Structure formats: structure tokens, C-alpha cells
Amino acid sequence: MTHSIPWRVAIPAEVRCEYAGTMQGAYYTDLETYLYTERVFPECFEGATGYRPSASLGVPVPAYEGVAALGGTLVFPLAHQPMIHDQGHILETGDEVDALEVPDPFACARFQQHVDTWHALQCRFPGQQVGLSAGQEGPVTTAVLLRGTQFLIDCVTDPDRAHHLLSVCTDTYIAFVRAVRAVTGTPQQGGVGIADDHAGNLSPAMWPEFVLPYYERIYAELGATRRSLHTELVRPQHLPLLRELRLDHVNFGENQYLGVRDVVDALDVPFDWHIKTVSEMLQGTPAQIQEAYRRAVADGAPEMVCELTVGTPPENVRAFIDIGRAYE
User: Fold this and answer.
1) 3-state SS assignment for residue 51
2) 21: left (phi > 0), else alpha (psi -120 to 50), else beta?
3) Strand partners, 84
């Protein structure tokens, strides 16, 4: 081993609730439940795995605020993550797409609620940094959540309409990030990360028209000093296109279509590689997890990640942490 391999354990809200014994619906809708979860979860997790994660302090904002602002309805199941009611069927007609406009975040009741919560946390925990997320998916994912597979068809049969929808989704993303920066006093330039899994469902030949210009608009208009991208469905043929974005980091998440060598051979960009959440961390054994880790590092993975899900055996988490520490 010639150099250290950074690693991290990604622990989403559902797992934090699992260890704290709280319900996911309440985590997002009741501030006291959120604060209790974040207070007790680290100790509970450490007791089970030997690893103490950091607590967080911020407004619990779902990732679908942009979709909600454009007509979707967020629902909060008691035991599951927030989701969009009737997703993919919100803009069913072309006329509905044509009438869509970029919303003003400060005119959105949900955004104002998040702002009020942020101010309340600032007062309650003086001197501590309080996070506030814009709650945005990337433009293609937002378009699919609003219009479903018809959006993908529009890209072929009605490209002007597809571009209108993408433009509105893109400008909504920009508007919400700018609004969050204004509320929190953050400079209107800084790191920008896009998470857009559904973009991988568009063929590489379609990316120069329907994907890359919208990513570039986000990075440019938000004054990105650091460009990152999360994308889970791209194929090897998409990878050369990513060079045009001048990325500083890529996260491929749970991508089932790529291997480490695909990325190493196609890109000269830092990336992290996931031990798979379900097939390895949830369903695998400690020995299998550590062997998958060794293979990924041997193939050239520069960083390693595992993202947990509910029910992941603690011994599997310990196995990941132990092999991660061995490569430090």
C-alpha cells in the first residue's frame, strides 16, 4: 500500500431514526423528534458498531422541495422517507408543462417554514452552525418526478417542451440555492453539488443537448468554486462526457453499470466508490465486505464509502470500518 485511502460511513435519516428509536415521519415534521434523534443516535450507533458518528444540527429538509414547489405534494409516511404523492403524474398534459414557471422560494410556504425553523434553531443554539438545505434534485430527476417517463419521450418527440421543463427545473434549482445563501448569509459563490440520478436514463448521444447545458448553467450561475456531481445510473459510455463539466469530484453511489476500472480509465477526476448498500452491506458477510473493499482499492478506487440502510447488521458495519482503518 503506497497511500492512504479515505473512507466514510454515510448514515441517512432512516438509519439515524432506527438507532434512536424514532419514526421517520416525525423526524421531518416535528422539530423535537429531530433534535432528540440527532442527540441520542451517535451514542446508540457507537454502542452497536464501535464507531461514533457526528451529530448534525440543521433544518430537516427533504430532497424534493423543488418538486413540491413546482406542483408536487410531499407526504411523510410514519415509517418511511418523505416522498412525492403521485410522482410522475403531476404534469400529465403538455399544456401543464407549457404553463409551468419558476417559483419564488420566498413565496413558497414550505420554504418559509424552513427559514423560520432555521432562525429558531439559531436562537436556540447560539454559536453553533445550523444547516439549511435547498432540497433540490438535479434538473432531469426533477423533470421525471413531475412528468414521468413522458418526459423521456418528450426529449425525442417534443424537444421544445422538454427543454422548457428542464429550463424551469434548472432555474428553480438556482433560485432555491440563492435563497438559502441569502437567508444564511453564505456568499453567493461557493461549492455546488448536483444530484441527478435519472440523467443516466438518457442516452449518451442526448447528453450534449438535454443534460450538459443545464448542469453548466447551474455551476456557472451559482458561481461554483468547486463542482461535484452525484449520478447513479450512468453507463461507461457516459463517462467521457463528464470531462466537459470540469468536475472536482464525482459520487457514483449505488451504480450497477460501472466498475472501478471503468471510471479510472475514463476520467481523471477524484471519486468515491460505494460498497453496495443492499447486496453487500445488508445481505453480505463481514468477509465479503472486506474482500469487496480490497478489490475496489486494488482496481484504483481513491476513496471508499458505505451508505447504510435499515437493518444493516452491526458486524457488517464494523467490518467496513476495520478494513477502512487498515487502509488509512
Assistant:
1) coil
2) left
3) 74
- CB 53, CB 12: distance < 8 Å: no
pTM: 0.96
Residue with cell 448536483: 194
Helix (H, G, I), strand (E, B) or coil at 101: coil
The upper half-sphere exposure of residue 170, i.e. CA atoms within 13 Å in the direction of its Cβ, equals 20
d(CA 214, CA 255): 22
Among candidate residues 244, 237, 168, 162, the one with its CA nearest the CA of residue 208:
244
pLDDT in tens, 155-171: 999 999 999 999 999 99
Helices (H), the chain: 13-20, 24-29, 31-49, 65-69, 94-98, 109-124, 139-147, 149-157, 159-184, 207-210, 212-221, 239-242, 260-266, 286-299, 314-326
DSSP character string of 127-158: TS--B-------HHHHHHHHHTHHHHHHHHH-
Which tens digits make up the pLDDT trace of 36-61? 999 999 999 999 999 999 888 999 99
Strand 304-307 relative to strand 271-275, pairing: parallel
N-terminal to C-terminal alpha carbon distance within the chain: 10
- At residue 2 the predicted structure's pLDDT band, cuts being 50, 70 and 90, is low
User: Which are the contacts of 254, defined by CB distance < 8 A and separation ≥ 6?
Assistant: 232, 274, 276, 277, 307
pLDDT given for residue 240 in this prediction: 97
Contact 210, 244 (CB under 8 A): no
Contact present, 230 and 253 (Cβ < 8 Å): yes
The residue-averaged pLDDT of 246-274 equals 97
Residues paired with residue 87 on neighbouring β-strands, in sequence order: none
- Kindly report, residue by residue over 179-234, the tens digit of the pLDDT: 999 999 999 999 999 999 999 999 999 999 999 999 999 999 999 999 999 999 99
pLDDT value of position 54: 86
| Residues written for the chain | 328
Q: How far apart are the C-alpha atoms of 208 and 213, rounded to whole Å?
A: 7
